[in-house]
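Supplementary Note 3. Input sequence used for the single-chain structure prediction.
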Amino acid sequence: MSLYGKKIIITRDRSQAMDFIRLLRQQGAVPLLLPTIQIIAEPNPVKALQAVDKLKSYDWLIFNSINAARYFLMLNGSKGIPASVKTATVGDKTADYLTARNIRVDIRPRQPGADGLLQAMENIELSGRRILIPASNLTLPILGRGLAKRGARVEVVTVYLSVQAKPDNLCPIKLMIGNGQIDAITFFSPSAVRFFCRILGETAVNQLRFAPTVLAAIGQSTARELTERIARPRVVAGTASVQAMIAALGEYFSQELIEGKESER
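The predicted structure, written as discrete structure tokens, is reproduced below.
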């Protein structure tokens, strides 16, 4: 197993990290949970509720995460999605979440993230079309801007909040990072990267720039955020799932092992 013994930091919300931890342990890895982000419901979803009331007026409903789908459907209650409204997601996991609840998904891009969805919709006429995007308070404007440039009338409503977490194991993990004892750090969203940098502080982030620690990202938006704030990630998973992240990490460390053996010859 290429991940055997590897110490891997998980920066996801605690409630969403359990599957990742379980799968890493199955691969022999040593997962270390450092939640940098906490997901909570929008406490005053006035605009989102207004959008729910006029859902039939939209042409497209786009979900950029499972959290966006979950919290929007909670607000929507038992009303369902009108048949006239087409749906799209930025990743397979979000699409699976919707189909499991008998919600039709019209577009699921081959590549995860905003860029992948924009590419998947490039041959669709969007001029004048009304598009609703339920999202978090920290959602990047890449998708909305890309759709608006094509003439769409885009409305983004906040249905949940991504807030900075307060991990209780920060000191020992900072020490391990400083000593080069961490093999990889995984990030599933740009906001997780931003909160990670705030929580660790400038000194620890600078240490990472020159450390052997592998930075791993889900999707190009997260990869860009890592590149801007810390360093270019050596691992970028092509699908927005924990399985894809584990596969990408496994492939990287397998190749590293092969190259290490060849250099010894």
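The domain at 40-163 is CATH 3.40.50.10090 (Rossmann fold). The two ends are 22 Å apart (CA to CA).
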